[in-house]
Amino acid sequence: MAKTYKGKSMSPGGGGRFAKMTASLESKGMSAESAKAIAAAAGRKKYGAKRMAEMSASGRRKAAKKK
User: Fold this and answer.
1) How many CB atoms lie within 10 A of CB 61?
2) CA 59 and chain centroid, separation
3) Which pLDDT belongs to residue 4?
4) What's the CA gap between 47 and 24, in Å, rounded?
5) How far is CA 34 from CA 7, 22, 38, 67, in A?
6) How confident is the model at residue 2 (pLDDT cuts 50, 70, 90)?
7) For residue 9, what is the enclosing H or E element?
């Protein structure tokens, strides 16, 4: 398996695993919005709300730099 997913890192906080899960759920017929909600809920269960908030903020900062 490739180490990146659509240009995102597969390490925790890199966004690759979130994107992969979202794409997988969308391929099963879910909307993009509900797929993101399910992936975020799974992440909060695994990492906790505080760590997920940190990873989300980090991703938003990285996205803002690209623009």
Assistant:
1) 9
2) 9
3) 62
4) 20
5) 23, 9, 6, 26
6) low
7) strand 8-9
> Side chain identity at 12, as an amino acid letter?
P
**CB-based contacts of 55, cutoff 8 Å, min separation 6:** 12, 13, 43, 47
**Alpha-carbon gap, residue 13 to 9, rounded angstroms:** 8
In this structure, what token pair is assigned to residue 55?
Answer: 């990873």
Residue spans of the domains in the chain: they are 4-66
Cα separation values, 58 from 10, 34, 39, 62, 65, Å: 15, 22, 17, 6, 11
Question: Which CA distances in Å does 51 have to 2, 27, 44?
Answer: 25, 27, 8
State the residue for tokens 């099963």.
Answer: 28
Q: What is the pLDDT of residues 14-60, one digit of tens each?
A: 888 999 999 999 999 999 999 999 999 999 999 999 999 999 898 88
